[in-house]
Structure formats: structure tokens, C-alpha cells
Design goal:
The chain is of the alpha/beta class. The protein is built from 10 helices and 14 strands. The radius of gyration is 20 Å and the shape is globular.
């Protein structure tokens, strides 16, 4: 019997998992679904603010540890122990889900790979089917891919926010492993919470340089922000920083026309992105999709030792869709380079993706 109730599980490793899944949550809220959300910490705070006028039940559940952190030999030591910590958390998740799974029409997971049910249709959203392994663990690639492939079969469908044609892809090898046809999957095109920005009120001045900082890898976040502020002071016109810190809401005005926001949400978050002339961000995949959705030019900073970001930066730089920052780069020079980047021609965007998601889920929930 249909309950008109859905469970969403969202990873806290990056705030961008929450922003892209917002489009799907909003779609089902408009269909009068009762929504429960499993999330944690920064993601929990963000969603409560973003959806503060909606009746939603939040289930606080500790997320997996931040893999690929620290530097030098400590990077591999942390990675080794974090894997075992993750396995313990997975067992707790499985027990919890088993107790509540029958309350829902379907379960939708964004990067919380072990939130699924054998009895309730479960769907996974992920662009990263194949992980990019660190050099020291390169030989483990075949085993990791085998494990991923085996695990993805627990879901009715894996929704891949990318394009089916590899020559039009935004994440290429991450979303197009050789074994992809062995799992139930659907390429849905891009997924962005900014697909409806044309409906917002245009009451904000243009932002010449929009610096978007997320919460991941706190160990080097402040030094990264300080570097960007120092570089931003060399630029003329309006600069806005958004730090993705939902624990403390504040606004700071600095010299050289720089404004810093700890975090923004709702219509303001959409306004800022819509009014940005140039986006400057870590090379998060969701930010890449956001830029593709609104045809924004961007300068991307891959996080050192974060293999997904490093791969995406190299791949997209080769395609000349974005300009990539490295440690020796000068921001003024990179801004000039954005004038010659290629426009990404999208065959379908978020509105099309939502239709695909809705149609697919309804086939399993009738």
C-alpha cells in the first residue's frame, strides 16, 4: 500500500551532496510526500535552514570519516584506520535501516552507500562509481571496483548525474567504468539545485567574483581561505566569499570590496550563484554541475591528495571547460584565462533529470 512517504539519506562528507539532492527532495515535497532525512552535523544544519518552512523529520546519524585527509605518510595511516571505522558505522546503519525500512515507499541515498533495503525500493545517487585510488594503493583498484560493483547491485537503480556519451561527460572514468552495464543504472544528465533560479527576485547586485568554500578537510581549510583572500585583494570590483560553515552565521566586510558570509541558504543562495560573473571553488563535482546548469565560468582548485578532485581538475582542464589553479598560479592570470575556455554544451539539465528520476522511482513504487 502506497504511503506517500520517502526516506532520504545524505552524506555529510561534502555539503554539496545536500545541495544537489535538494532538487529531488523539493520535487517530492511538491507531490505532498512526507519526507524523513538521515544526515549529520553540517549537512543537518544546512538542510534545517534551507527547508525551515517544511515539515520534515531529521534523523541524526554519524557519517563515515573523512577519507583522504592529512599529508605525507599520515595520509595513508589515516586512510587505513578510517576504512575500519567506516565498516563499523556501516553495521550500525544496516541495523537501524532494517527497523524502519517498511515505513517508506522508497529510500533515496546520496553517497550513503549502505542505506538501502531488501524490502523497500532503494535508489543510489552517485557520479563516482569507480574511485581513483591513491598511488600507494593503486594495485587495489581492481578489488575496490569489484566491491563497488557488487554493492551497487543492492539498489534497484543507481542514478548517475552525468551524460551517457563519454565525449560529453563531466566526470568520464569516474562515471563510465567498463563494468557499468553489469549494474542497474541510469544516466540522468546533471542535477543542480539552481535549476529554478529564473524564478527568484532579481534584487541583488552582480557579484564579479564568487568564492565558494565547502566544509570538507578542515585541517587545511583556513589556510586555503587566507590564500584566496590575499589573492582576491589584487582583483578589482565585488568579491563575495561563502564558507559553508553552518555552525556560526555571520557576515564580515573586509577591505578591497570583499564580503564574507559564513553560510547562506534558500533564495539568497540561488541569487548569489545566479548573479555571479565568475565562480572560484574547489573542484567539487556538484559545483561543476551547478556551473554547467547556469553556464557559469569557473576557476577550480583541486584539494591536494583528494584524488577525485585532482582527477576532475585534470580531465576538465584538458577539455578546457574550466581553468585550474595550482600552487604556483596567480589569480589575476587565471581570470584572464577564463576568457578563452570552451562552453559546455549540455544536452539535458536538471529539469530533465528530475523527470527521469520520478519516472524510474514510480515504476518500482506502484
Amino acid at each position: 500500500m502506497k504511503k506517500n512517504k520517502a526516506l532520504f539519506a545524505i552524506s555529510n562528507l561534502w555539503l554539496w551532496h545536500a545541495t544537489r539532492t535538494l532538487a529531488v527532495i523539493d520535487m517530492y515535497l511538491l507531490k505532498n510526500y512526507e519526507i524523513d532525512i538521515i544526515c549529520y552535523w553540517n549537512t543537518l544544519n544546512f538542510l534545517k535552514e534551507e527547508l525551515k518552512w517544511k515539515k520534515i523529520k531529521y534523523i541524526k546519524m554519524v557519517d563515515y570519516p573523512h577519507l583522504e585527509r592529512w599529508f605525507w605518510v599520515f595520509y595513508y595511516v589515516y586512510l587505513f584506520f578510517d576504512v575500519f571505522k567506516t565498516l563499523r558505522l556501516i553495521n550500525k546503519e544496516k541495523k537501524y535501516i532494517k527497523n524502519i525500512e517498511n515505513n517508506y515507499d522508497f529510500i533515496f541515498s546520496d553517497w550513503r552507500y549502505w542505506v538501502y533495503s531488501r524490502n523497500t525500493p532503494s535508489f543510489l545517487l552517485s557520479h563516482q562509481l569507480s574511485f581513483v585510488m591513491p598511488k600507494l594503493y593503486h594495485n587495489a583498484q581492481i578489488f575496490v571496483d569489484y566491491y563497488n560493483k557488487k554493492h551497487f547491485k543492492n539498489f534497484k537503480v543507481v542514478f548517475i548525474p552525468d551524460y551517457k556519451k563519454e565525449n560529453k561527460s563531466l566526470s568520464w572514468k569516474l562515471s563510465h567504468p567498463k563494468w557499468v552495464d553489469s549494474i542497474n543504472h541510469k544516466y540522468i544528465w546533471i542535477l543542480s539545485s539552481f535549476y529554478d533560479t529564473k524564478l527568484i527576485k532579481k534584487n541583488l547586485q552582480e557579484i564579479d567574483y564568487y568564492f565558494v568554500i565547502s566544509w570538507y578537510l578542515l585541517g587545511n581549510k583556513q589556510s586555503f581561505i587566507d590564500t584566496l583572500i590575499s589573492e582576491a585583494k589584487k582583483l578589482e570590483w565585488k568579491k563575495v566569499f561563502v564558507l559553508g560553515d553552518t555552525n556560526n552565521y555571520y557576515i564580515k566586510e573586509l577591505e578591497n570590496d570583499i564580503t564574507i558570509y559564513s553560510c547562506i541558504s534558500g533564495e539568497q543562495r540561488k541569487q548569489f550563484f545566479e548573479n555571479a560573473k565568475l565562480v572560484i571553488s574547489r573542484s567539487w563535482y556538484t559545483t561543476i554541475m551547478d556551473c554547467a546548469e547556469l553556464d557559469k565560468k569557473a576557476i577550480l582548485f583541486p584539494t591536494t591528495n583528494q584524488t577525485e578532485q585532482e582527477y576532475l581538475a585534470d580531465f576538465l582542464n584538458e577539455k578546457k571547460y574550466f581553468v585550474i589553479w595550482n600552487n604556483d598560479s596567480d589569480l589575476i592570470e587565471l581570470v584572464w584565462k577564463t576568457k578563452s575556455i570552451n562552453k559546455f554544451e549540455a544536452s539535458g539539465k536538471t529539469k530533465n533529470a528530475l523527470k527521469k528520476i520520478e519516472k524510474t522511482i514510480s515504476e518500482f513504487c506502484e
